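User: Okay, second chain of the day. Same drill as before: sequence in, structure tokens out.
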Amino acid sequence: MRFLPSVAALLLAAPTAAAFAPQSRGSFAARANVGTAPLTRMAEGTVDNGPPYSGPATKPILDSVKSPDDMKGLNLQELKQLAHELRWEVLEAVSKTGGHLSSSLGVIELTVALHYVFDMPEDDIIWDVSHQCYPHKILTGRRERMSTLRQMGGISGFCKRKESKYDSFGAGHSSTSISVAQGMSVAKKMLNKRRNNCIAVIGDGAITGGMAYEAMNSAGYLRSRMIVVLNDNGQVSLPTGTQSAGGVIPASQLSAYTSNLLVSKPFQDFRDFAKSFNKLLPTEVQGVNKRIDEYARGIVSGGTLFEELGFYYVGPVDGHDMDNMVPILEKLRDSPNDKPVLLHIKTTKGMGYPPAEKASDRMHGVAKFNLGTGVQVKGKSSAPSLTSIFANALIDQATEDRTIVGITAAMPGGTGMDIFGRRFPKRTFDVGIAEQHAVTMAAGMACEGLKPFCCIYSTFMQRGYDQVMHDVAIQNLPVRMILDRAGLVGNDGPTHHGCYDLAYMGAIPNLTIMAPSDEIELRNMVATCAAFDDGPTVLRYPRGTGYGAEKLTKLFGYELPDGEVPTKGEVLPIGKGRIVRRPGGVGDVNGSASSRGKKREDRVCILSIGTRLHESLVAANEVEEADPELGVTVADARFMKPLDVDLIRELADDHGAMVIVEEGSIGGFGDHVLHFLALDGAFDDGKLKVRPMVIPDVLIEAGTQHEQYEQAGLNSRHIRGTLLRLTKRVKVPVLEELES
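Assistant: Same drill. Structure tokens below.
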């Protein structure tokens, strides 16, 4: 509705919360006169004059900002210039290191505005997931360390409390920020702290997670003073637009709801916001402004979902328009009201960099790239990724079995469901960031005769653990749980490692758990899962690529027809492992031609599960090259549950020492084998020595996967050293002696 000039004038002259709360500095609106600024239209995208793209030659304002305090005296134009310089600083840094790019580009203006308006670390800003935190890191004293981003010994790609006092809360997984902000707000109030400003920044993808709804429900009920900034960029899944049973739209009805708000309502500017702000004023002031508020209700959305949950809804606001965003945040900061607020902003993911805005995934996660063109610099490996191998193997099975369906929780690109979805869109289900729902939905499908493949990162399956137990295992439903990114994952660090799945899944009855050692075994295990209907199965595999035909032949001992890697998987016998190498090498699987290991104490074996088999075979070759008397057998367990007890007994009876190798934590495969051996009496005569090699009980920080396995002590040289110590070939157990 239109407002008469006299009403608008009356409204802007009405008492505001600023009159009832002391301010440490004058408001931005007063200094910049943005209260009468015209509405800034949301940018549809950056004007693209084509490559090469380049930023400012100098960054004088950014150079002057060593901490957020240095921003407080800047005026409007200087803040805008700071945002421009900051955007190109992020681009230049990530182009050299790789990382999460477009999410950071989309919140540049928001980050500047938040740090200008609020006073960290006394005020708390919680970034949900926190992959968008690069501009925040630069403004909080870590600019000089951005060259070490996501590297061993460098700064994390996520917020990390031990890294900076400005990182209010660590993250990496989604949908946690509102709960954190509420907890902090309650604590500040109970401890009578002078200031209570807690801001949760959450995206339209993360807010689809059930935990976010739980927190909003609680915040409204408890009237927790907090601000939730809903960063709405239309990118719910990675990538959004994957073909699925829901179409190519974002995988969230909430996203459709907020999109409708954006379509049905114009962007709010500061004048519009001021008209509706009466709802947050003290009761006596509301009485003065009651008549004005009746007019104002026509401007804002009434009865929104967020208001029904007890939030005061503000928006939508252009998230790149600092003229309006800064004074709105100031008003919210200075309100004495305890009611939680949801500020709904619309942003463009990848804003300001045309290659990112045009890419299907908006250049969400990138390798190093050419800043001038946006072209990423990737390795020249000709081997396909294990994720793509899995997806194509599943397509093969689904082609022959129409009951096979795929489920993912907002990660179609990372799990291969985007590939599966292109072939079978109506049999692909992206449920958003909702791992619990994904598992139980799969259980329901299994009840009715479908064969659901529930494809979730290992680290994210932790969030659906109760559902695996209660909804799948207890009822023995044939749900196929596919855990990508098992083991150590590289640059994302400890929040994304998948090294706990063997331990947490291994404790649940009725599960069949398997882990492939290479791409051939991965295809075989996909076929095995598809064929197994007697209960739930778990297939976990790491981030990485296949080895290719040459290595599979020479190191693993495969006999490949025509020298080609098979593209069709074969069903494996459940719970049966295999001997890959006997003393003398992979060409002598029966061990008949070898004269090595004539005495039991000179016969050693390696029992591996998963892709550490490669390192085990390398270590075995190196040990035999170093000592002509030692004979090394290498076995691939394939299955953790059920264990191949016949294979384990054979190895225990015939060898003096056994090394158990896995890319998992304490409590996993090695512990299951040790438990069996102890109960089976294998240690009773004192003739068998066993050493489990697992990821140690520490958090391994970001780095390359090789660096991380080096730190974990699970590369070939560590396995070699363990074998030599067990056979008393080295006196002092230090790796430096092995290298010499």
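The first helix runs from residue 5 to 12.

User: Thanks, on to the next one.
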